Amino acid sequence: MKNDINALVRVIYAGNGVALNKYFIENSDLKSIEYWASLIKDYSKKNNKIDDLNNFEVFV
């Protein structure tokens, strides 16, 4: 997952819209709400952000 995010950041930073679109086509899981919700939940658990995690789960 970390490699996916790093690659996405590099594509965004390059400022190439065509490359960004291609990246999302090749990595369609990044377009799902479930993927990002899972990423946020994992981050919150690993960094002892229990209050933030609880607030996020209420939001989702």
Describe the structure.
- Keywords: Plasmid.
- The chain is mainly α.
- The protein has one domain (2-59).
- Helices cover 78% and strands 0% of the residues.
- It has helices at residues 2-14, 17-26, 33-46, 50-59.
- α3 packs antiparallel against α4.
- It is elongated and about 40 Å long.
- The mean pLDDT is 81.
Quick structural gist:
The protein contains 4 helices and no strands. It is mostly helical and 60 residues long.
Summary tags:
60 residues
Q: Helicity, in percent?
A: over 70%
Q: Radius of gyration in whole Å, from Cα?
A: 14 Å
Question: What count of structural domains?
Answer: 1
Major pleated sheet: none
Apparent shape: elongated
Computed structural class: mainly alpha
How many beta-strand segments? 0
In whole angstroms, how far apart are the ends?
20 Å
Number of helices: 4
Strand content: under 5%
Q: Low-confidence runs (pLDDT<50, min 5 residues)?
A: none
Tell me the series of helices and strands, N- to C-terminal.
Answer: HHHH
The mean pLDDT is: 81
